[in-house]
Amino acid sequence: MKIAAFPDPYLGTSWGDLGARILSSGNKLTVTLGYPALGAVADYESALGEFLGTADLALDLRFSPPPGRGFEQVKHIIAVASGKGGVGKSTTAVNLALALDKEGAKVGLLDADIYGPSQGMMLGVPEGQRPEVKDEQKFVPLKAHGIQAMSMSFLITESTPMVWRGPMVSGALQQLIGQTLWEDLDYLIVDMPPGTGDIQLTLSQKVPVSGAVIVTTPQDIALLDAKKGIEMFRKVDIPVLGIVENMSTFLCPHCGEASDIFGSGGGAKIAAEFGAALLGRLPLAMEIREQADGGVPTVQTDPESELALIYRDAARHLAARLWALDAQAPQISIADD
Q1: Tens digit of each residue's pLDDT (9 = 90 or more) over 207-251
Q2: At what angle do helices 198-206 and 220-235 cross, to 10 degrees?
Q3: What is each CA distance from 98 to 49, 68, 170, 251, 308, in whole angstroms?
Q4: Does 116 have pLDDT greater than 90?
Q5: Is the same domain home to 51 and 166?
Q6: Does 333 fall in a domain?
Q7: 169 and 118 inside one domain
Q8: Shared domain check, 133 and 277
Q9: Is 336 part of a structural domain of the chain?
Q10: pLDDT band at 160 (very low <50, low <70, confident <90, very high)
C-alpha cells in the first residue's frame, strides 16, 4: 500500500515502518498514529493527497498510544525540566499538557515543584480547594480545563513555606505520584523543579519516566544549565524527547520590530549538539504570562491562536518522538530450535 511509505511529518520515517494502522476505502482513509494530532488533520490530509496524487481525499486521523511504560492507569510519564529557574518551564508544562488534551489525548499534570508549586494558580484552581481523599490514603486529582491535576499547592495555603530537607521532599513527591488516583491517562506531564537535585534523582530512580523535555532560553547561561539537565537524564537512561526554547524573540507591540533580547539560535544549537529535536520556539509575549497568571493558559484561552498553535505543534512533536522510541525498541521473539 503506497500510503504506508508516507513519511511522518515530524519523524521523517514512513508510517509503515512506525507501525501506523492504515485502512482505505475509495477516497476515505483511516490512519491510527501513535501520537495525538487532531489539530493537524487538514495539513496531513493535504500532504497525503499530494503524496498519493489525489485531490479528493477524506482523512480520519486517530490516536492509539504506544505500549505504556508507566504504572497502573498512567501509560507514559513525561518530565518537563530546566537546568535553572526563570525560563518559563511551568508555563511550558501546563500549556503542553493542555495542548496534548486538545490534540486528543487523556492527560494529567503533576506539579513536582514541592518548594514552589505554581500549577494551582496557572490552572485557575481556587485557593483552599482540596482533592477528595479515598480510603484514607488516595488523592482524587482535581479537574481543570479538561485535564487531571495534582499539586502540593492543593494541600497547603499559598503563604505556607515548605521548610523541608531533601528526604522529606523526595518522600512527598513519591506520595503525590503513587497515592493519586489518576484515571486512565495517556500522558502524565510532570512539572519538575529547576536544577538537578533530589527531586530529579527521585523521579528518575523511583518512577518509570518515558521521556523528558528540556526548557531553556537562548541565553548562554541558561544553555549551560540546560546541558546539565540533558546529561542528567542521559545518565539515568531517560530519553530526551526534545528542547523547547522560550523567550526566543521579542516583538515590539508598537512597531512590530523583532529583538533577540536573550540571544538567538541557542535552542537549535543545543538540540543539534545533543542530537535532540527542537520542539518549538516561543516568543517573549506578555499574553503568555498574563494568561497563565490569570488561571487560563494560552492553549486554553484560544486554542487556535498563533501562540497556542506553537504549543500544540510542540506537543504533537514530543509525542511523535515517544512513539518513535517504541517503534525502534528491539522485538524479542522466542522460537524452538
Answers
A1: 899 999 999 988 877 788 888 889 888 888 899 999 999 988 887
A2: 30
A3: 30, 20, 26, 25, 10
A4: no
A5: no
A6: no
A7: yes
A8: yes
A9: no
A10: low
Task: For residue 217, give the amino acid letter.
Answer: T
Q: Which three cell numbers stand for residue 159?
A: 503563604
pTM here?
A: 0.92
- Structural domains counted in the chain: 2
State pLDDT tens for residues 32-49. Answer: 999 999 999 999 999 999
Q: Give the residue-averaged pLDDT of 263-289.
A: 88
Instruction: Output the pLDDT for position 332.
Output: 35
Angle ∠(184,149,79) on CA atoms, nearest 5: 80
Q: How far apart are CA 216 and CA 88, in angstroms?
A: 8
| 8 Å CB contact between 63 and 39 | no
Please check whether residues 54 and 79 belong to one and the same domain: no
29: β partners? 24, 59
Report the candidate in 191, 213, 171 with the shortest Cα–Cα distance to residue 111: 191
Residue 69 within a domain: no
Paired with 212 in beta bridges are: 79, 240
Q: What is the domain extent for residue 10? A: 2-63
Q: b/e string for 268-295 if b means 16 or more Cβ within 10 A?
A: ebbbeeeebbbbbbbbbbeebeebbeeb
Q: How far is CA 226 from CA 69, 92, 238, in A?
A: 25, 15, 15
Q: Which of 24, 41, 63 is the last residue of a domain?
A: 63
Instruction: Give the span between the Cα atoms of 69 and 77, in whole angstroms.
Output: 8
Shared-domain flag, residues 205 and 304: yes
* DSSP structural state of residue 32: E
Whether 220 and 82 share a structural domain: yes
Using CA atoms, how far residue 62 sits from 29, 39, 86, 163, 319, in Å, is: 11, 11, 37, 46, 14
Return the residue matching grid coordinates 533530589.
198
